[in-house]
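Objective 1b. Sequence-to-structure analysis of protein disulfide-isomerase.
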Amino acid sequence: MSLCVGARGVACLPPSPGGGGSWPYLSRDQAWVPRGGRCLAPRPLICPRPRGPRTAMDGQLLPVLLLLLGASGLWGQGPGWGSLGGAPEEQPPEEEPLEEDGVLVLSRQTLGQALQEHPALLVEFYAPWCGHCRALAPEYSKAAALLAAESARARLAKVDGPAEPELAEEFAVTEYPTLKFFRDGNRTHPEEYTGPREAEGIAEWLRRRVGPSARRLEHEEDARALMDSRDVVVVGFFQDLQDRDVATFLGLAQDALDMTFGLTDRPQLFQKFGLTKDTVVLFKKFDEGRADFPVDKELGLDQGDLSRFLLTHSMRLVTEYNSETSSKIFEARILNHLLLFINQTLDAHRELLAGFREAAPPFRGQVLFVVVDVSADNDHVLQYFGLEAREAPTLRFINVETTKKYAPEPGALVTAATVTDFCRVVLGGGVKPYRLSQEVPPDWDQRPVKTLVGKNFEQVAFDETKNVFIKFYAPWCTHCKEMAPAWEELAEKYRDHEDIVIAELDATANELEAFPVHGFPILKYFPAGPGRKVIDYKGTRDLETFSKFLDSGGQLPTEEPAEVPGAAFPEKPGNATEPRDEL
């Protein structure tokens, strides 16, 4: 299920992977997530499938028309669905699947035949109105052409979900596009597609399922040819290819599409590469050139441990941040990042890279070394760390789980020794994190809505003589903009109440020690009195409800639930607001 951050949702989220942790300095436009994760950007990968009536025709007239069609015998052949005689539904006759741009076009009548004829079938459930489906369409057709040119056993197909509601229900399609892989005609247990959304990635994902996911290596020439073919190659050296560890290795190879895999049990290859026991070796054309992952003889090969090892060692010791590398930087699951901000157009700045690289090896797997070019399109990274391009060269350290940021002493040089020392001091807890804050505006308290920043937040929010209601927002957040007029009206209404303060704080430019802000807008009420009490506002965002909340001292009014005939449970109160699965 996706948490909406689209135009009609209730909250905007900063980039964060679905499984936990965060991607703090990833651009929102780069924040693409796998199925099942939280939607991170204005352009998420999926459109949730509509539930319930969407129009008058869908909700009211359509069932009546279908009933009339069934009663008149126009629906299906003879007494079928909708028949007043109660006869069981007849299965629709099988038809030949249509084809469009090399992709099979399937329906309820043609899916069964397609599954029988094609032992490896990838099916996309799409909606004609879904923008993400339209974006995928040309890549999907290109992937079909690639596989057809290779005479591969895999075929691609698509189903119009809204036009085929029975199939959408059968395969639990809740969002578009949804892709499912059917193997050997098995209709009941398709595999969820979790691969890329560009043509070569789709084709490679299928190749590794219909063919071997790792190339069998018999001779040294085979190994050398494989290693020469790619920058990163992973070879599993196993003395017994029937061992369960081999199945683990091949399972990982199916999905690690950015790496090429080989497999061997030949003693001469063990000897050639200096191995005496089962080992997975990552060969690379950069840095150390090779990294070994010995297989524990007692515990066996753990796929998670191997995956983390390969992610860590397939990356360069120093990675330049850009749109192509950003996702890999965060997927490496290394929580500590050290960023060097330089201007790559300046010779003096580029000369600092040698010392930065020299410091990196001892921290492999513990600290990810990243270079950010301030002359490139990386303004969002500078903004996240509260930097300006003129401050380069400089270092910043961040733990992406806690989002705590650290800076070296002002004017510190960037050398191998200073970089090493800075890393060790931060990891050892010898440096305090810094927090961003804008300067306090001279007129911060002159408007009905008071302007707070990090530097004056504590003084205002926890003033024991005031009841303070604060909106934490992001300048780019659609929902923040939508509620802005109501917030202004609220401030105007209570401007003469000396004990009430209505304020706002840009949470993208100001960080607080009291609590983190993970979504926008967030509304919090700080009642007068001792104890630093904080109340989260969870009501609807309109002037009337805001006013009732303030007048009751920070409590939402309880409303009697409306009685609905035939309803098993009362509906939620009108002021309850929860995330909705819609865009």
